Amino acid sequence: MTITVEIPDEFASRMVPEGQEPARKALEDMAVEAYRAHRLTGAQLRRLLGISSRYELDGFLKERGVWLEYTVEDFRREGEITAPLMARRREELEARPEGTRDERE
């Protein structure tokens, strides 16, 4: 889809930083707002903007004041998932014969 928008010069200079491509700036701004409104997922946003990694996407979003939505419920759910895994790992380490443990453990 091609969208053409006319912006009076008096506003364009305020809306698009010098040296930045206006079409790219408009695409990024629209995409970020769609992400904030949950109309795009992170994976869709990455694909749309040609961002190669989740790490790069996080930086892109932070530059625009968009932070990861991480609730107390998310934290609890991760704890429920992680607790049995950590318990199993502790049991594995305790079952190893003495002298075979790594110094980091």
Task: Summarize the model shown.
With 105 residues, the protein is an all-alpha fold.
Task: Describe the structure in your own words.
Helix 2 runs antiparallel to helix 3. 1% of the residues are buried. This protein is an all-alpha fold and 105 residues long. It has helices at 9-15, 22-36, 42-49, 54-63, 72-95. It is 61% helix and 0% strand.
Helices and strands, with pairings:
Layout (H helix, E strand, L loop, with lengths): L8 H7 L6 H15 L5 H8 L4 H10 L8 H24 L10
Number of strands: 0
By secondary-structure content and strand pairing, the structural class works out as mainly alpha
Strand residue content: under 5%
Mean pLDDT: 89
Terminal CA distance reads 56 Å
Radius of gyration: 23 Å
Number of helices: 5
Q: Major beta sheet, specifics?
A: none
Fraction of residues in helices? Answer: 55-70%
Main traits of this protein?
single chain, 105 residues, mainly alpha, 5 helices, 61% helix, elongated
